[in-house]
Amino acid sequence: MSAGAGRSAAVLWALAGLVGLALAVRFAGLGVQSYHHDEVITVARVIPGSFGDMLGHVKGSESNPPLYYVLVWAWAKAFGSDEVAIRSLSALFGAATVPVAFLAAREALNERAGLIAAALAAVNPMLIWYSQEARSYALLVLLGSLSLLFFLRALRRRGGRDLALWALASAAALYSHYFAVFAVAIEAAWLLIAMRHRWRAVLPAVAAVALVGLALLPLISAQVNPQHIGWIDGMPLSSRFFQTGVSFLAGETGHVIAEPPRERYALWPAIAIGIAALLLILRGSQRERRAALPPLAVGLGVVLLAAGAALAGRDYVVERNLLPALVPLLVVAAIGFAAGAPRRAGAVFAMVLCAFWLGFAVYVARTPNLQRPDFRELAERLGPARGPRAIVGWKLAADPLRFYLAGGARRIYKGEVALREIDVIKKPISKRRTVILPRSFHQVERVRLERLTLIRYRSRRSREVPFRVLRDLRTGFGVNGVVVDGPPSAPGGGG
Q1: Fewest Cβ atoms closer than 10 Å to its Cβ: which of 147, 245, 408, 420?
Q2: What is residue 195's DSSP assignment?
Q3: How far apart are CA 183 and CA 323, in angstroms?
Q4: Which residues contact residue 102 at a Cβ distance below 8 angstroms, ignoring those fewer than 6 apart?
C-alpha cells in the first residue's frame, strides 16, 4: 500500500470512529429524558392521524415549514412514537452532520481541518442536545451543513453540478426551518459576486432557491401567530445573544424552565475557541485565513442578520433559531486549530476541547438538573387523581403533564372549577411564601423533585376555585399553566 493510500485509509478510519462516537453519545441517553413542551406538540398534536391531518396541524398550530414533520410522520408510522423511536430520527440527522462537517472543512482547507471539524461536531453539547429532540433543529443543521459544503465546493470548483447541489440543499434547508434563509442568502450573495463571470450557471441556481423560498410565503402568512413567539421579546436582545453564545459552547443544559444560562460551563470552551482564533490570526498563512472567510461570513452573518431583523421589529432571536450559524463557526474553529506552525499545538487544544465536551456530555447525562424537566417522574409522583384536581405549574409544563398523566387531563384558561385537590409545582426557593387558597385546602405533602418542588393541598369536600386564583399562585415562574383531571368537575373554563 502506498503512503497516500495508507493516509487516506487512516483518515477514513478516523472519520468512521468519529461518526461512531457521534452515534454513541446521541443514542446512549435517547430515552432518558421525558418529552418537553415542543416535543409533545410534535408527538401528540402534529404527527398522529393521516398525512393530511399532519399538514393541517403544521399550517394551523406550528411556526415551522413542513419537511421535518413529513419525515417524522413517516418515521412514526414505521417505528412508533415513544421517546427513543421519535428522537432516533434526529439522532441520525445529528450523526450524519459529522461527515458533512468533515467534508466542508476539508473543502475549505485540508483533511486535518476536516477531522477536527468532524470531532467538534461529534461532541459539541448544543448539537448533541438537539440531536436528542423531536423537533426540526437537527435536520436544519444537517441541511445547512450540506448547503455550506456545496457552497464551498462551488467556490473552488466553479462547476454547475455543485451549484445545483447547493440549490437543492439550500431549498431543503428552507423547508426545514425559516431561519435557514439567513445562511442561504449569504451564500447566494457570495456566489453571485464570486462567480459573476459564470452568471449563466449561478443565476438559475440562485433563482431556483429564491422561487422555493417565495413558495413558502402563503404558509408563513397562515402560521403567523403572536402567541407562538410573543414570549421571546420578554428578555433583552443582548441577553439572548449572550445566552446563544453560552449554549453554542455548553449546550442548553436544561435552562428550559426559565433558569439563567450556566456560563461557567462555557468558560473553557470559550478559551479554547479563542486560542483557535489567535492561532489563525497570528500564525495562520494567508491561504488559511482566506479559507476561513466564507464559513466565517456565513456563521457571523446569520447572527448579524438575525440581529438586524430583530431591530427592525421581527424579533425571533433565541439560541435554537441561530443553529444555522453553529457548524460554519465550528469549521472556522477547526481551520484555526489546523493552522500555523507548530500544528501540534492546535491539535492538542482541539483534543482537549473535544475531551471536555465529551466529558460534559456524560456529566449532563448523569445530572438531572442539566436535563429537560422530568415530566414522566412528575406524573408518576402526582399519581392518579383521587378527586377533581388542578395541577399548577409553569405555562410550558401543561401540555407535557397532560401527555404523561393517565388520560382525561385538560387545560383551563378561565372560569371556575370544582376541586378537592390542588398540586402546585414550584421552583425550589429557600424562602417559603404563603399560598393563598380557599380555607378548606390544607397542605398534605411537600416533596423536592430535582429542580422542582411539588406541594399538594387537599380539601375534605369539593370547592369552587376561580381560575384567576390558580393563575396567580406563586410558583417562581413567569406565567402559570393549569391542568385539571379526575372526575368531571363543575362546568366552566374547559380548554
Answers
A1: 408
A2: T
A3: 10
A4: 15, 18, 114, 115, 117, 118
CA-closest candidate to residue 153, choices 138, 140, 163: 163
Output the nine-digit C-alpha cell for 379. Answer: 406524573
The 10 Å Cβ neighbour count of residue 277 is: 16
Domain spans, the chain:
9-370, 375-485
Alpha helices in 383-451 (DSSP H): 398-404
pLDDT in tens, 445-482: 999 887 788 999 999 899 999 999 999 898 888 789 99
Q: Phi, psi at residue 458, to the nearest 5°?
A: -135, 155
DSSP for 2-69, please give it.
-HHHHHHHHHHHHHHHHHHHHHHHHHTTTTTSPP-HHHHIIIIIISSS-HHHHHHHHHHH-SS-SHHH
The edge-to-edge listing of strands for the beta sheet with 410-411 is 410-411, 480-485, 389-394, 416-426, 452-466, 442-449
**Contact 333/300 with Cβ under 8 angstroms?**
no
pLDDT digits (tens, 9 = 90+) for 331-355: 999 999 999 777 788 999 999 999 9
pTM: 0.93
Nearest to 331 by CA among 115, 70, 151: 115
CA gap 91, 24 in Å, rounded: 10
Handedness of CA 60, 326, 261, 133 (dihedral sign): positive
CA 78 from centre of chain = 24
C-alpha cell at 20: 461512531
